[in-house]
Specification:
The structure is a homodimer of 429-residue chains. Chain A has 19 helices and eleven strands. Chain A is an alpha/beta fold and 429 residues long. The interface between A and B is medium-sized, with 19 and 19 residues. Chains A, B: Pathway: Cofactor biosynthesis; NAD(+) biosynthesis; nicotinate D-ribonucleotide from nicotinate: step 1/1.
Amino acid sequence: MDIASRVYAHKWKIDPIVRSLIDTDFYKLLMCQSIFRNSPDANVTFSLINRTRSIRLAELVDEGELREQLDHIRGLSLTRGESTYLRGNTFYGKRQMFRPDFMEWFEALRLPPYHLEKRDGQYELTFEGKWPEVMLWEIPALAVLMELRSRAVMKGMGKFELQVLYARAMTKLWSKVERLRQIDGLKLADFGTRRRHSFLWQDWCVQAMMEGLGPKFTGTSNCLIAMRRDIEAIGTNAHELPMVQAALADTDADLLQAPYRVLADWHEEHEGNLRIILPDTYGTEGFLRRAPDWLAGWTGIRIDSGDPARGAETAIAWWKARGEDPTRKLVIFSDGLDVEKMEELQAQFSGRVRVSFGWGTLMTNDFRGLVPGDALAPFSLVCKAVSVNGRPTVKLSDNPNKAMGPADEVARYKRVFGVGDQAAMDVVV
Amino acid sequence: MDIASRVYAHKWKIDPIVRSLIDTDFYKLLMCQSIFRNSPDANVTFSLINRTRSIRLAELVDEGELREQLDHIRGLSLTRGESTYLRGNTFYGKRQMFRPDFMEWFEALRLPPYHLEKRDGQYELTFEGKWPEVMLWEIPALAVLMELRSRAVMKGMGKFELQVLYARAMTKLWSKVERLRQIDGLKLADFGTRRRHSFLWQDWCVQAMMEGLGPKFTGTSNCLIAMRRDIEAIGTNAHELPMVQAALADTDADLLQAPYRVLADWHEEHEGNLRIILPDTYGTEGFLRRAPDWLAGWTGIRIDSGDPARGAETAIAWWKARGEDPTRKLVIFSDGLDVEKMEELQAQFSGRVRVSFGWGTLMTNDFRGLVPGDALAPFSLVCKAVSVNGRPTVKLSDNPNKAMGPADEVARYKRVFGVGDQAAMDVVV
């Protein structure tokens, strides 16, 4: 290492976890642009939720360090190179995916303030403000907390003990790569930014997958890594769009239509592989049953909760009922995947639909079993839009363990969307 | 990396495996000094012997590359820093272990020519010349062939595949470290230079043991690594001393005394922990039975062939018979050790003698099971003094699978030394 690089590295008073505004999921940027056009003034609150209560984050992670990391993120702005990339790169086959007015706004953006308190061994971390601004906190906030937790656990480890820890993690990931490359026709992307062990580890995993899986690895949801490694940035849309629009609905009839209004906007903006339905926000079966016909013409569906095989079968039946050919449709599985589940799903659905996987936490954070007390095992941390213009948001999902919102509102949504009993499934990550 | 380092690294036309004359076992230097004084003009031939015939080295390793590596070694001479270290460092508690006349000779030394031919898929590599010069070829020749074989196997591997290979090897070594550190009173040194996977890997292993075992790790036989890592250089003497002296004996009576003459010279030169008997060259039991009483006063014994527990029991009984207290004696086990065997031996002999281990190939080259076809598994390569002044050398050992020499001479030695039936044991490494 030359002296200048070394001095430069020492100048940082902290070792920043998030060093770029595009170290985030690509779909956040697509959604941000959509929100920037359609709902720029909605006042939204995002909140961190640790579903794994047994991990007492506020006892593990120092508040001062957390604040330093969050403050560092507030100081970030889009660099010239990042802006050039977003403006000039071809995403999903399209040039100028990001419109000039959006890019100008994004170039000037700094993330808004955060609010941090400790309660009952957990951090209450919230972000309130204009939707297109606060929504960009989700991924960096999660990444910071995940990585600070990793750092806290690794603090006392020796140099070689640490090297061996990573050696073990590499060995583990590579064994998965060796199994995955046996799968004929596999298409898999990295969806693991939000709950990664660390940035450097995610970057290593992506490069290992590029070498180990070749064209079976289709890209990463992480925009910064996609840029640096010159691979595809992957992602479309997420639950926050219907959740916020639903909360804004004034009547039950309006509420029932909210998810489709969101997709009608999306339909106008995007085509091809960006037209992916995320049907589970208020129950997949009712959503598809009531869906307008133009939605059946979309390219595919993303299965993000519930039993994934059942979700895919439901979609196939629905396409057939609407006169569509399922073999031309894309099914993206993205919920809590690991190798065995992907092998099963590929075997069950290959040839019947175009299968694709978004592999998340168990790609970028499978440190299970690597340290005493399993202190580096991933856990279920999310950061969600919890209210908009003073009204609470609700998510039902196809798994009641993933539902959120005040009890009375959840009951109302279940009534409006006709959601009955659901099978509860463990949320691993 | 700065530009100058990079350009410097590129200037090498090859990537040299052995870059220093002291990248060798410390005992070679101690023996070399002894030979330099006692037998400087004996004409000795060393020869490479691959006991694992199934590994066809001449097909795996390119002859041009092998010659380049050997030629590079012929160009090496002691650097100023190395000389300062050898002259000034305290070895085994003694300053000026190496005498000025020896150091002057060593500073001027270049290794003599080698002779290389291919036969039957193997390399015939021999070194002929004055004993103190040719004997220094042993370790670098072995290290070069072992590492060229590793390189040949790894040639087609991708960058991340390679990283994972080393991750797996690290994981494996560290699991051993975690078991070893459970052993109360463990004393263990690295004896793995000659059959290491590579120089960098040995250096990594040594550092990992320093951190992982703390004071239970007592040092390394590798003089260069001992210097660089500031730990003890470990080693005393080896079979080549009695083998060459035995071959020089003119009568059977003279032959029978040869091993004791060697140790009488050693007794004069060294004291304390350097007075370690290596009894198995022509059979441990007879050697001890006939040994002069002053040998029973030596500090310890090294068990390098045969059943190690039996060897240690034989030594204990012998010490008792000679009125010595075994609990004050050192027993160094150094033959084909791995963790389980060390656990067993420590349990059996702790408290009865001072136990110590010289851990070799399965520390610095346990790549078993890490690549398809086990193509990186260590194998049994040695480089031995095969003749002196035109007479063949003989080794019997406590394991007939380790014996060497022409059949008629082996028969004569067995008769002279009274060696009967021996239990054959597999030679793993």
